[in-house]
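Section 5.1 Outputs to date
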Amino acid sequence: MSIDKRSGILSSAARLGISLTSLMESKVLLFANEFETERVWLMRMALRLLVAVAALALACSFAGAWLVYLLWDWNHTLALLAPALLFLALGFAAWNSMLALAESKPAAFDETCEELRRDRAALTAFFAPGHD
């Protein structure tokens, strides 16, 4: 369909429709890109968490067994309590580290929301009374 270049209400409405369609297309593409970025980030975090938990569980098991073996003849209570306290401290440190990492990430879809705010401000300024 050809749009008439003359100034008229129908051609203005058609140009407005084309502009709005183009604007929405770019916003949907931006949203899709951010959604994919979020998905990849979450998958990486989940994989890293799984590997870390598995490795730490094995390390804790072997370290605990070694510490119990090392201290058994000296003091039975200390031999059993020392690894438990050590692993408790390591668990709290790992938990705090994971929380700090999760909080350092910007909010999801921040770029899309910021683009929409700028578009709304531009359209508000354009349609404000006194605009040429």
